[in-house]
């Protein structure tokens, strides 16, 4: 069976072995974050749509689970903002009928100010929203939201969702060097986190080539120091680069290296050429970057990958 809506399972630092379910077309999002590993948003929107039939999505998940072994989580995530899928509540309900495997939703949290979006996520076992800035100026700089979104609307949505949601709420805070990885900015974030009251605060930084070159990673020791200021339940999830390396090469590694030897390619081209999802391709590319087998270069705002030692 050829899968169009699911990918993996892939290893997730936050969720273990995760079966990804992608509910929106590639790079359809409410944000255009400067650190996004999938590149710039090509369709920035607030319009919620039923992009794909619910039955088609559930059929693929059922087939994948039947093929085994079971993942730790079924994760609604992928290559855009999953809450833009207007039938996400029906997908969650269908998954809950199908299996006891917990359902997680990876979201930027931007649409939680809408009552129908909050309602749609109530049956998920874990919801993992983001908070990348403590004020409107940095929100606009880091997340580059749709013009109709504003910072206070977004954080109030997170607070309201926590009040209504009875599952596990794990808040991701993405810190960037020279931008939000500053004590004064961390204090602003901590103030909002105290109001949101997440069960976990997961602190992250750039580990894969970002959409913009000026999105800088934070060294791990500094990340840990700043995380302590976000709350007692804050943990650092960004690993050393070496920690992402698989000891065993993945089946399509040689195929990818052969392609790169001929010409530099983008992440989307890698995914299409190997028949895998862009989010899965990003994880695989990171393994090769970490081992030094390939490198990334940016040209005209686009990230290309090529063999180490070769110039573009």
TrEMBL record:
It comes from the Bacteria. It holds the Pfam family Radical_SAM. Residues 13-246 form the Radical SAM core domain. This is Wyosine [tRNA(Phe)-imidazoG37] synthetase (Radical SAM superfamily). The keyword Iron applies. Keywords: 4Fe-4S, Iron, Iron-sulfur, Metal-binding, S-adenosyl-L-methionine. InterPro entries: Aldolase_TIM, GTPase_Obg, rSAM, rSAM_sf. Its cofactor is [4Fe-4S] cluster. One of its GO terms (molecular function) is 4 iron, 4 sulfur cluster binding.
């Amino acid at each position: 069976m050829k899968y169009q809506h699911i990918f993996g399972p892939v290893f997730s630092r936050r969720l273990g072995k995760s079966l990804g379910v992608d509910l929106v077309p590639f790079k359809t999002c409410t944000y255009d974050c400067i650190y996004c590993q999938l590149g710039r948003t090509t369709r920035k929107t607030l319009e919620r749509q039923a992009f794909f039939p619910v039955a088609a999505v559930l059929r693929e998940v059922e087939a994948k689970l039947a093929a085994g072994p079971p993942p730790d989580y079924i994760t609604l995530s992928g290559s855009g903002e999953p809450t833009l899928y207007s039938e996400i509540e029906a997908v969650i309900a269908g998954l809950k009928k199908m299996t006891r495997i917990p359902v997680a939703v990876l979201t930027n949290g931007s649409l939680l100010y809408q009552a129908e979006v909050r309602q749609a996520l109530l049956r998920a076992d874990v919801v993992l929203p983001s908070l990348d800035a403590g004020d409107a100026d940095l929100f606009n700089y880091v997340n580059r939201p749709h013009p109709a979104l504003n910072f206070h609307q977004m954080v109030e949505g997170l607070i309201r969702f926590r009040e209504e949601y009875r599952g596990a709420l794990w808040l991701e805070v993405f810190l960037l060097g020279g931008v939000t990885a500053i004590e004064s900015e961390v204090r602003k974030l901590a103030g909002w986190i105290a109001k949101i009251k997440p069960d976990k605060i997961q602190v992250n930084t750039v580990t894969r080539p970002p959409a913009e070159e000026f999105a800088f990673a934070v060294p791990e020791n500094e990340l840990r120091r700043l995380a302590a200021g976000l709350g007692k339940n804050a943990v650092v999830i960004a690993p050393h680069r070496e920690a992402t390396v698989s000891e065993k090469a993945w089946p399509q590694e040689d195929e990818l290296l052969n392609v790169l030897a001929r010409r530099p390619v983008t992440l989307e081209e890698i995914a299409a050429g190997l028949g895998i999802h862009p989010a899965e391709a990003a994880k695989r590319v990171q393994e090769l970057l970490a081992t030094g087998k390939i490198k990334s270069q940016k040209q005209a705002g686009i990230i290309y990958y090529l063999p180490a030692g070769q110039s573009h």
